Amino acid sequence: GIRLMLSTGEGEFKPRSSTVIYFRVSDIAAEHAAIAPRGATFVDTPHLVAKMPDHELWMAFFQDSEGNTLALMSEVR
Q1: Cα torsion through 10, 15, 18, 21, rounded to 10
Q2: What residues pair up with 63 in beta bridges, in sequence order?
Q3: Residue 16: alpha-carbon gap to chain centroid
Q4: How many CA atoms lie within 13 A of 15 on its CB side?
Q5: What is the pLDDT of residue 62?
Q6: Which range in 23-32, 36-45, 57-66 is most confidently predicted, on average pLDDT?
Q7: Cα gap 19→38, rounded to integer Å
Q8: Kind of pairing between the strands at 56-63 and 41-42
Q9: How far is CA 74 from CA 17, 27, 38, 48, 51, in A?
Q10: Cα–Cα distance for residue pair 2/62, rounded to 1 Å
Q11: 3-state SS string for the chain
């Protein structure tokens, strides 16, 4: 399925473009540890974004080699 979220940037973090692609992963800490040494520039570390009724939503934002903002997303149950 596809999930669409429309919002403005939060706090000091403002993506360079209007679109952020989220990659859903099962283990956000492991993916963060695997991608960071390969040159991804992380804006933040994996962190709790929201507590939902049946899971916690965790995210970590990073930039690719062209400055586009991407994110890792994990739904922890």
Answers
A1: -100
A2: 41, 69
A3: 15
A4: 19
A5: 92
A6: 23-32
A7: 23
A8: antiparallel
A9: 22, 7, 20, 9, 12
A10: 21
A11: CCCCCCCCCCCCCCCCCCCCEEEECCCHHHHHHHHHHHCCEECCCCEEEEECCCCEEEEEEEECCCCCEEEEEEEEC
Query: How many residues comprise the chain?
Result: 77
Contact 37, 52 (CB under 8 A): no
Mean pLDDT of 65-73: 86
Give residue for tokens 């956000």.
28
The whole-angstrom separation of Cα 21 and Cα 33 is: 19
Q: Which residues contact 65 (CB under 8 A, 6 or more apart)?
A: 39
Rounded CA-CA distance 32/6 in Å is 24
